[in-house]
Design a protein that fits this description.
- The protein is of the alpha/beta class.
- It has 16 helices and 5 strands.
- It has 3 domains: 162 residues, 3-Layer(aba) Sandwich (Rossmann fold); 39 residues; 174 residues, no CATH class.
- It has a 5-stranded parallel β-sheet, sandwiched between helices.
- Helix 11 packs antiparallel against helix 16.
Length: 394
């Protein structure tokens, strides 16, 4: 299945969606609404857009051409609802619901992809619910969310659920080798450090600066022992996150613009005809909104990396992991030292602290304050262990 080859570790999902998009005469029509769930990095959005292209294309041979337009979000039969803010606003939902009633102009179906269905507050969800309850004949909805629990029960009950799993490190590494020409050693390292997140693994495998920033984050997290350390590390990680976010946005913006120009049939650097300027302007506005959220996204990536440290400490403290089972093998000695000083409960408390910090970032609390509070809490956890050891020695 060459068309689906970049969907990693999801054979059951691919088979189901490929069958649903069948071109066989007399084949049953696909469900009018789908909900694709799975952990970060499992490929929810990528799978949704592949499925959209397969549904729109009029033949199997036409899938790749359609996907190029779908990926650039320039296909006339594709609608997309997403956001770079904390929530999807009701006006955006109303607009896409209106377009759902248009008949497909080029393909078999009109497909509406909602990338961040978990970011819809109840009043926004109710707008979508009405559209799904009374679907147009040739419109198909594809929703993406981390879990079905993130959506209203009334929406869940009207969709066909497809749960994705976390791909294996080996599967992700193989994709990097086959698609991007990465060496086996670098591919395995990137897949391991990214915890099987496909997009992040590719970035770590192809961007030496991104890999170096991740390693700096791990070093910083392992250096926290005092309150002074906590404040310094919080500032250091915020700087790393901003640098990483800026670098990612620059590359992403350039690639999206190039793909959009190609999808519109324009050569790189060509003048944009007046009739196409609104589409390019919409892309630029979306990129600007995304940049405003980039620091929080960058900090969330940093916190994911830091949580892998305390996951490794927990595994080592429980004596359930060999060195090769660690995510951060490069820091195995420092992790083993911390595991000897900490008991498993402290590592769990540190993981809870990171989870709380990520929740605060989602609630729009000032990032600097979130990071300072997190590492101050880590220091308290560290000091409780020291105090406990001192009491034992007395």
């Amino acid at each position: 299945m060459g068309f689906w080859s970049e969907i990693v570790g999801q054979p059951v999902a691919v088979e189901m969606l490929d069958r649903a998009a069948s071109y066989e005469p007399g084949a049953a029509a696909p469900a009018h609404a789908w909900l694709i769930t799975g952990p970060a990095g499992s490929g929810r959005s990528n799978l949704a857009y592949r499925f959209a292209a397969a549904l729109i294309a009029r033949s199997e041979s036409d899938r790749d051409r359609v996907f190029a337009q779908v990926k650039a979000q320039t296909h006339p039969d594709l609608g997309v609802l997403t956001t770079q803010a904390a929530i999807i606003k009701i006006d955006a939902a109303r607009e896409v619901v209106t377009t759902a009633h248009y008949a497909p102009s080029d393909g078999r179906y009109r497909v509406i992809v909602i990338e961040d269905a978990d970011r819809m507050p109840e009043h926004t969800s109710n707008v979508l619910l009405k559209a799904i309850e009374e679907p147009p004949e040739r419109t198909i909805w594809v929703l993406c969310a981390p879990s079905e629990a993130d959506l209203l029960p009334t929406i869940r009950s009207r969709t066909r659920l497809l749960r994705l799993v976390t791909p294996s490190i080996e599967d992700v590494a193989q994709l990097l080798q086959n698609r991007d020409g990465i060496s086996p050693e670098r591919a395995i390292q990137a897949a391991r450090l990214a915890q099987s997140h496909v997009g992040m693994a590719r970035r770590l495998a192809t961007d030496d600066e991104a890999l170096a920033r991740r390693q700096d984050s791990i070093k910083a997290a392992l250096s926290v022992h005092t309150l002074g350390d906590a404040m310094a590390v919080a500032a250091s990680l915020a700087k790393i996150a901003q640098t990483d976010a800026d670098a990612l946005m620059d590359r992403l913006d350039a690639r999206e613009r190039e793909e959009a120009m190609r999808g519109l049939g324009l050569a790189p650097g060509a003048a944009i005809p007046p009739r196409l300027r609104s589409q390019v302007k919409a892309l630029e506005e979306e990129q600007e909104r995304r940049r405003k959220r980039s620091l929080r996204d960058g900090l969330d990536r940093v916190l994911t990396d830091v949580s892998s440290v305390y996951r490794d400490v927990l595994m080592a403290a429980l004596s359930t992991a060999e060195e090769q089972d660690l995510i951060n093998i490069e820091f195995s000695r420092a992790i083993a030292d911390l595991a000897e000083r900490w008991v498993p409960e402290q590592a769990l408390q540190a993981l809870d602290a990171i989870s709380d910090a990520r929740g605060r970032l989602m609630r729009q609390i000032t990032p600097g304050l979130v990071m300072e509070a997190l590492f101050a809490r880590v220091v308290m956890i560290h000091n409780r262990v020291i105090d406990a050891h001192r009491k034992v020695q007395m």
